[in-house]
Design goal:
The structure is a homodimer. Chain A has 18 helices and 16 strands. The first copy, chain A, is an alpha+beta fold. In chain A, strand 12, helix 15 (354-366) and strand 13 form a beta-alpha-beta unit. In chain A, helix 6 (134-150) crosses helix 13. Chains A and B meet through helix 1, strand 1, strand 2, helix 4 and strand 5 of A and helix 1, strand 1, strand 2, helix 4 and strand 5 of B.
Chain lengths: 439, 439
């Protein structure tokens, strides 16, 4: 006997959780596809040298890497971006540009196990490659917006920044050699406060007055007035001018498509961790749960394929944090947990009516009602307990009397109301009306 | 620079292929869910001892097995059945019985690379656990039927057998000690012919007369008459009686639900490779492509969890061979290959109309038309070439004139017809009518 167990940091998803995850993935895929993002698939396992070069030291340590049967040095993918870079380099002739793809798949990182962090988790990425247009930058924001709306999330803010602006500011202050460290610190302002950031900036050997100027700038918020006039006076050099001009163009598009202004805001403190962003960057906070961090983040990069090809390939994309989002929906009480994807349980209460029960269940399904047939004529109590546990909205009792008279008895499991001895077609109408509101 | 490449035996799926696969998976999931099969997820990586014990020697050699960071002996799953057995043993309290699950996921086998065989491939399993009823045996047949119908496959035969019948026959002939070998040989009759099977049976030290009796029996086919009367005379012992009685019950259900008789047939030569089947077994051939083998197979087992628990857990299930099915649909010309999931390409032909173009594209999407916005005002020819390559059904031209007059110009890319300067709402009606047949 082997003890049934999963590896530390890995988890099973039982039906109630898996049903929700699959519904979320289906809704997100539908949004991505409506914009013309096509799905692609890459293997879970790659040559290690494909994955390692672009990864940070941290990721190299966390890599699931081993030698396979053919003595190849291989590893499980740790994200979907490096495989994308390999994919577009390898298939560029077949794909052509521009190229829009999405990918929803599992990735593996041997991180120290801790609450809510897993070693295998699902990423959900979409990228628009081979264009530098403001149109594509704006589209990513719209995809994030439509994705969260599709999941029933009403109140969120997509925070937008442009790396060029902070680069320009740092250049104008003569501290652009420290830009990565500066971005890392200013990104924390919301969490640690102004004072702490000022301290850390000065500890980077930045003059206090310059540090104060940086903080003053990142604190500028949209306040209903003409934001772009306000920040025009800060434009110190061509980098800032270009960065602000790009944001202005994106704002023009978002305004034309009438995205509610409450859904997005410029925030100069947004840095995003990854070094490879070179233009616009995004992150998205749920207004009801700001502390869980960003649920959708990304940005523009100017050379996706640098490790695989001399040809430059620029693009813009984002990633929706599926696990974080699911945890948020759970916290917000937006999840309707059920252990079955079907709406009706058909309950045969007599051994002789097995075939007729199967026939009635099929008729329900043929009428677009998810319907499950209890597999044996167990006692009423046992079958009802099953329906209660699984979460069927309706049960349909079938005994000798019902079959003889060509009727059924249905019970609404939410409110307990029961309709006895009704025709199957009336039962179907009633169930559809209750479930879908129509007829 | 690293050369972009995939491991031997692993493959990328480019959009045209991934779109089809995702559509197929969505349709299959919908069928499974309508019957009350719930999705579950298990990790790709497991403790090696979980996977190995139940695997054959062959599979042990093919296992991707390694030592992880924590010095654990781990392996990538090679099927979805062993993880299911581990899952139901581990979570039996939470799940309860009966339990119906489906799982669609990738598995890994380091087989010798050959045409059409991959080391990572997708399995698609559904199982009904914790019941021995004929109702559940019949339901699996119905799920296979509805699945293939949902994919637009019209002509197929689900071949049905019951292990108990062959067990009984072999017992009555006193050759039941060789049953596994016998089943392996008779399973080949369609491929190699009667003579060869007779030869291999006699080479198993089975008397020629007995071998002939086995072959006579497995050759009995349904021929429109009363099949069960015909085979009644072959009933030699309780095993055969019970096996035939079970098939008869299943036939009663299939007849009650009015499944077309052409879709299923009893075939005593069906063995299915796996040793653990103990009752009904299924396989499914496409009548137009019999040579590709079974596209949906399975059967009943009486102890799924024997390596993990003393408690017996019986069940019945099947697996749809997704890769084989996709190859078949391709061969049958049933696949409409497109590189984009969107129907319309909006083509902005002037730099000044970027924002308006985004607005019009959004209006198409808000009308449930998948619409992609070309990201830059490139030349007409270039944008048209993009639409041609991707396979959009319609393009929508937008120039200064169109925007000024609040109209659009649309072209049907399949037949080349163009409608100039039409209102957006008329264009939307026309596109929806063409794509979906309605208004």
């Amino acid at each position: 006997m082997v003890t049934p167990r999963t590896l530390s940091g890995f988890k099973d998803r039982l039906p109630s959780e898996a049903i929700i995850k699959h519904n979320v993935i289906e809704k997100l895929s539908k949004v991505f596809r409506s914009f013309g993002f096509a799905p692609i698939e890459t293997p879970h396992l790659e040559y290690a040298d494909i994955l390692i070069k672009q990864g940070s030291d941290e990721i190299q340590k966390e890599l699931y890497r081993f030698t396979d049967h053919g003595e190849r040095d291989v590893a499980l993918r740790f994200d979907l971006t490096v495989p994308l870079a390999r994919f577009v380099s390898q298939h560029k002739e077949a794909l052509g540009l521009p190229f829009k793809r999405y990918a929803i798949g599992n990735v593996f990182r041997g991180e120290r196990a801790q609450a809510g962090r897993y070693r295998e988790f699902t990423q959900c990425d979409f990228d628009f490659i081979g264009t530098t247009s403001a149109s594509s930058d704006a589209e990513i924001i719209l995809v994030i917006y439509e994705s969260l709306k599709a999941l029933g999330i009403e109140s969120f803010t997509i925070r937008i920044n442009n790396r060029k602006i902070m680069n320009g500011l740092c250049k104008s202050l003569g501290v652009d050699d420290k830009i990565e460290a500066i971005l890392r610190e200013v990104d924390k302002i919301e969490k640690v406060g102004e004072e702490k950031v000022l301290e850390s900036l000065t500890s980077l050997q930045i003059e206090k007055q310059k540090a104060a100027q940086i903080i003053e700038f990142i604190k500028i918020k949209e306040n209903g007035g003409d934001f772009f006039s306000t920040i025009a006076e800060y434009e110190q050099n061509e980098f800032m001018v270009e960065g602000i001009k790009e944001l202005k163009k994106i704002y023009g598009i978002l305004s034309a498509i009438e995205m509610p202004k409450s859904a997005y805001a410029i925030d100069f403190s947004i840095a995003r961790g990854l070094g490879y962003y070179t233009g616009i960057v995004y992150e998205t906070v749920l207004n009801e749960l700001p502390t869980i961090g960003s649920v959708a983040s990304g940005g523009r990069y100017d050379n996706l394929t640098q490790n695989f090809s001399k040809e430059k390939m620029e693009g813009v994309g984002a990633s929706i944090g599926l696990d974080r989002l699911l945890a948020a929906l759970e916290q917000l009480g937006r999840l309707d947990r059920k252990e079955t994807p079907s709406s009706v349980l058909v309950m045969p209460l007599d051994e002789e009516i097995e075939a007729e029960s199967a026939k009635i269940t099929k008729k329900l399904r043929d009428s677009s009602i998810g319907a499950e047939l209890y597999p044996a004529p167990h006692k009423l109590k046992k079958q009802l307990a099953y329906a209660n546990k699984k979460g069927h909205e309706f049960v349909l009792f079938l005994g000798q009397d019902e079959i003889k008279n060509s009727v059924v008895t249905i019970r609404n499991m939410k409110n307990g109301t029961q309709i006895d001895m009704v025709s199957l077609s009336d039962a179907i109408s009633h169930i559809k009306h209750t479930l879908y509101g129509g007829n």
